Amino acid sequence: MQPDASAGAPLTPAIVFENLQAYQRTFALKAAIELDVFRAVGQGPGDVASIARHAKASERGIRILCDFLVIAGLLRKENGHYRHTPSSATFLDPSSPACMASITRFLALPELREPYEHLADIVRNGRTVLPGEGSVEPENPIWVEFAQSMGPMMAPLAGPLGLVVLQGRTGPMRVLDIAAGHGLFGIEIAKQNRQAHVTGLDWAPVLRVALENARKAGVEDRYDMLPGSAFDVEFGEPYETILLTNFLHHFDFETCVMLLKKVHGSLKPEGCAATLEFVPNEDRVSPPLPAAFSMTMLASTVAGDAYTFKELAEMHRQAGFKPATAHPIPMSPHTVVLARA
Amino acid sequence: MQPDASAGAPLTPAIVFENLQAYQRTFALKAAIELDVFRAVGQGPGDVASIARHAKASERGIRILCDFLVIAGLLRKENGHYRHTPSSATFLDPSSPACMASITRFLALPELREPYEHLADIVRNGRTVLPGEGSVEPENPIWVEFAQSMGPMMAPLAGPLGLVVLQGRTGPMRVLDIAAGHGLFGIEIAKQNRQAHVTGLDWAPVLRVALENARKAGVEDRYDMLPGSAFDVEFGEPYETILLTNFLHHFDFETCVMLLKKVHGSLKPEGCAATLEFVPNEDRVSPPLPAAFSMTMLASTVAGDAYTFKELAEMHRQAGFKPATAHPIPMSPHTVVLARA
């Protein structure tokens, strides 16, 4: 996102025009991923003709699309040839192990974009125009897509989260992964601690994705499934650790406290709740990515938010936890909030 | 638009995430304009409650929307209060004479955004998915909206364009304004030269907007209308000056040459054609705004483009003009290209 560069510089309406046209960038990146442009740039000579052949597309279309990607900072152009930037090579070329191009399938879902057509109404009413509970309506199929496509964005967070949560702790432990989704966070705990037993909780069709990931990671013998809603199902016998990743932001403060009380009641003494969240600073406008996430919650939920650490700490306090601590994950917009029962 | 900041800095997927979510910025700015947020910020204390009252909106919605506008560089936040940036005060507050908030009505037209849902197909085929000639299909009603709402973006260009075109020339002259739209460019010539007589050419419903603007400017007695298509109607007796503003970019090179030949044939000896265009550098990726305009032409036309000066000069040469000259308009993405018959 861009700061206003007008201080001292000549005053132009460029920032207004750019923001009004910003939607083009979403669609340009989505189209480039669909057309496999980033693989073509990585493996070919990078001229318009070769990229167009690879993408089975017109040269006019490819030239204009690739120029646009350069302007958006997603490619470079050198003597008329398109080249990867460090970011596009790492995160957008399917031949990179860190490629996260699949996240476009979730982030550009029409169901998630459609509410923005009514954003003024949403701001008036203070809640999504989606029916029922919005994106967290029971059995909403978008969470299957989330589990299937957002893994590459979450995978780099799993290692650091595991280190923070385990803090070197070994030996047998039971872990509950609430709203497990792709399951990668619980699976990582099982990988870091060979005696950990993980229970993934989510809608049944979502858990099938998590189980498949557990199988790929070779930990399926220590992976159980608990299908249903975190608010309704019994968590079962107490756990050493309960993970709440990318979940609290969907709900209002009181609902979060209620859920955290249930979590607190399902932890062994000194057991630990680990929440992964977009946590903006107290000013709520920095850093840009966690702070901007509030908009996604405004558009898609009834009362969710990107909560500040102060708010998250207070939720935990009201739910009976000892004082919470914040552990920002380096080079990511996410923070782990830890609290002991 | 943002350069890749990753050189030297830690490599994060932030730029990928930001581009995929960029559409939110279009809708946030549109909603803020609809809710009159920028007027509220300019005239009130700038706290959430007062803006929400003015906008007749929820405090949750206003807080999240305004924080998002701060992140996008469209407002500032100071001790919890929202303040104008120099840009938002000038270009987004309706109490500013330079306010251009109305351009959102044209730029966010569903008809213009819809093709992006099919951008991969558009790139494959190299042309818009809109029917017929796309945005320049005869009598397309979007041009009435363009004429009505884009004036504030074009008005600051009119004075500089008039100076470049007239170059101090006084005395009687006939001016043809092709694709007149809002009519502001021809009207400005009539204002700068009290003996100029202007003929606006455009679809009849569009010309009604131009005529109303001529009336407001007090030059309607020197303003004639020539309704129809620039390709079909007879231009009539020869002109001293013919304006071609924001028009050539809709067509392919050969069509532009054909039209410029017709223009050449309708000019008096030493008469002058003045083209106003988004003109990118020869690299086609700078400056960002004129270069990015190619994407708009890819999405909405059959074969239009943001042409480089070299291309525009060659079109004029092939149409019989003397060598063209480029006159960039300061602090705008536009350039005037002048050529004499």
Biggest beta sheet summary of chain A: 7 strands, mixed
Shape of chain A: globular
Query: What's the oligomerization state?
Result: homodimer
Q: Overall pLDDT of chain A, averaged?
A: 95
Count of individual beta strands of chain A: 9
List the strand order in the largest sheet of chain A.
5-4-3-6-7-9-8
- What structural category arises from helix and sheet content of chain A? alpha/beta
How far do the termini of chain A sit from each other? 39 Å
Q: Which pair of chains has the greatest number of interface residues, and how are they split between the two chains?
A: A-B, 95 and 95 residues
Q: Kindly provide the radius of gyration of chain A, computed on alpha-carbon positions and rounded to a whole number of angstroms.
A: 22 Å
| Low confidence ranges of chain A | 1-7
Order of helices and strands of chain A: HHHHHEEHHHHHHEHEHEEHEHHEE
What is the strand content of chain A? Answer: 15-25%
Counted by DSSP, the helix tally of chain A is: 16
- Please give the share of residues in helix of chain A: 40-55%
